[in-house]
Specification:
This protein has 1 helix and no strands. The chain is mostly helical. The chain has a domain of 32 residues.
Length: 50
């Protein structure tokens, strides 16, 4: 099985004072099932910082 790389680019509007780590946490959980592992992600390396 070969892996294919791709990137998604999106625009997210957040309320003032919102935690800018929250969207990355949601993405990490969706991809990995948990954010409690050492980087890089063992399943799919990804960048989730704001």
């Amino acid at each position: 099985m070969s892996k294919e790389r791709f990137a998604h680019d999106g625009l997210l509007s957040m309320e003032p004072g919102a935690d800018d780590r929250a969207p990355g946490g949601v993405i990490t959980v969706a991809l990995c099932g948990s954010w409690e592992h050492e980087p890089p992600c063992p399943l799919a390396p990804h960048h989730t910082r704001a």
